[in-house]
Design a protein that fits this description.
There is one protein chain. The protein has 17 helices and 23 strands. The protein is of the alpha+beta class. The strands form six sheets. Strands 16-17-15-14-20-21-22 form a seven-stranded mixed beta sheet. It is globular and about 65 Å long.
Length: 508
């Protein structure tokens, strides 16, 4: 029996989960991660990641009864820049995916002939959330850090480096550096134009590849055997998709953790700037879809704002939201608290309650936020359909899958069946599935999915509610369109405020 240890670093915590090859969870441990937010800057400390990674490895092993670990892998958020020196030390805090300081650099890159060529070939657009604008920002504003940087890494890459001493990334993470999957190279001409050193970029390998044994002293500190193999998986969105067990066209995966990750598969979808189109793991098909900036994080925000003093906040939130009407008495929430990625790619967008009246209560506001999680999904489905793929049913996992009302709301908004998975930790289970397939424990991903991705319940849509939601969804879209120029104007005003107060939080 083979056992896989998965380090899963999300935006608000780092977890370590141990699975056997039959999908049984043997043990786990989690610790919160601090986040620093200052205006458009969102940062975490890579040194904190590593110290807590060592703790969760040791404690998950203890929780599992200290079984023999055959493989270890890492999955994390993507598009978070870590600058690492020649000794493998992080030179500063990491710039997280929702960090927007590099907006001007993104615009400049987009205006170049070299990027136009890349976009025409790959269909991958540019935004401040991706790696090249962040690197260019560091080069211009922190030249001493740039000069000392030996490697530009994602969180995945950084933790893999700490485990193995090797600077390696997978091809899905490499896309965030605008790696060309067909040509299998980084954008050399663009990097020359920007005068960014390509020597600092990680080596790219296939997911599921064994990259060597764990460093001996790291194994000893965690209580692991020194023969454990470190296998590369991918970033959280890819792993969670695989962990959801989607195998057929028309099926989609909705992983509603801190962010919402919504994807399907297609043999024929075209490339588009609204959603990613990435080759599926060793299969003749592609993964279509994307991630937004907040999903479950919206619910955390509601709790912090309105329910912090309640003894059982999540239970009360669900109860009160259920007591509001479908459509929240005409109240619409635009969920763009950290700007937005898929499908609008607008870093200036912000959260708005539209239609707020004197009659509205905490219940209605909570309901409107719950309903916005369905509108997020529907907007991504619209973009997927534009690319030429279909979504007929949705597999739901992540933290929000624990809230039955949200699952029903999603089914009603989408007008489609929602299949709630038994395993909420699909990011970790998907990483384990990649390892087991890549290392030959299983020959077929469908066989692994049968063990790891079982269905807990099937939720049918209420089509009467669906009709109400379709009207609300049109207002949702039109509200954003009308406010888009005001969001841009707001940014100019906010920039003049020069608010340099840093806020430390545990949950985004």
């Amino acid at each position: 029996m083979k056992n896989v240890m998965v380090i899963n670093m999300g935006l608000k915590s780092i977890r370590c989960i141990i699975f056997n090859q039959n999908g049984v969870k043997l043990g786990s441990y989690a610790i919160a991660i601090n986040t620093a937010i200052n205006d458009y800057c969102v940062e975490q400390d890579p040194n904190e990641w590593w110290e807590k990674a060592k703790l969760v490895m040791a404690n998950s092993l203890k929780d599992a009864g200290k079984p023999y670990i055959d493989f270890i892998t890492v999955t994390s958020s993507a598009s978070c820049l870590v600058c690492v020196d020649k000794n493998g030390n992080a030179l500063q805090r990491a710039y997280m995916v929702s960090d927007k300081r590099a907006e001007e650099e993104a615009k400049e890159i987009k205006s170049t002939r070299e990027f136009t060529n890349i976009y025409n070939e790959t269909g991958v657009d540019i935004s401040s959330s991706l790696m090249l604008p962040k690197i260019l920002w560091v080069k211009r504003h922190l030249s001493d850090i740039y000069d000392k940087t030996e490697f530009f890494m994602s969180p995945n890459d950084f933790l893999i480096y700490k485990l193995t001493g090797k600077c390696i990334t997978d091809y899905c993470n490499a896309i965030k550096f605008h790696y060309d999957l067909e040509k299998k190279n980084y954008p050399i001409e663009l990097l020359k134009k920007l005068e960014i050193k390509i020597t600092a970029f990680p080596e790219v390998v296939n997911i599921g590849e064994n990259i060597g044994n764990i460093i001996s002293n790291v194994a000893d500190d965690a209580g692991l055997n020194r023969e454990v193999k470190v296998v590369i998986s991918s970033y959280d969105a890819i792993c969670s998709f695989i962990g959801s067990g989607v195998n057929d066209e028309g099926e989609a995966s909705d992983v509603s953790g801190t962010v919402t990750v919504f994807r399907t598969i297609s043999n024929s979808a075209k490339k588009t700037s609204k959603v990613y189109n990435i080759p599926y793991y060793n299969e003749n098909t592609n993964i279509i879809g994307g991630s937004n900036n907040l999903g479950g994080g919206l619910i955390e925000w509601v709790k912090q704002c309105y329910y912090l003093k309640d003894e059982y906040p999540y239970e009360i939130m669900e109860k009160e939201a259920a007591e509001s009407d479908v459509g929240a008495k005409g109240l619409i929430f635009l969920p763009f608290l950290l700007g937005e990625r898929t499908p609008i790619w607008d870093s200036n967008a912000r959260g708005v309650f539209f239609g707020l009246e004197r009659m509205h209560t905490r219940k209605d506001m909570t309901r409107a936020v719950f309903e916005s999680t369905g509108f997020i999904d529907l907007s991504i489905i619209d973009a997927i359909k534009e690319a030429g793929a279909e979504v007929n049913s949705v597999r739901l996992s992540g933290g929000l899958a624990r809230v039955n009302l949200i699952s029903q709301i999603k089914a009603d908004v989408l007008g489609r069946e929602v299949l709630v998975l038994s395993e909420f930790e699909t990011t970790a289970s998907g990483a384990a599935m990649i390892v087991l397939k890549g290392q030959g424990v299983y020959s077929d991903m469908k066989l692994i999915a049968d063990k790891f991705a079982t269905i807990r319940m099937i939720i049918k849509p209420n089509m009467n509610n669906h009709q109400i939601y379709m009207s609300m969804y049109e207002l949702y879209k039109e509200s954003y369109t009308a406010l888009k120029p005001l969001f841009e104007q707001r940014k100019k005003v906010v920039d003049k405020l020069n608010n340099d107060k840093e806020i430390k939080i545990e949950n985004l």
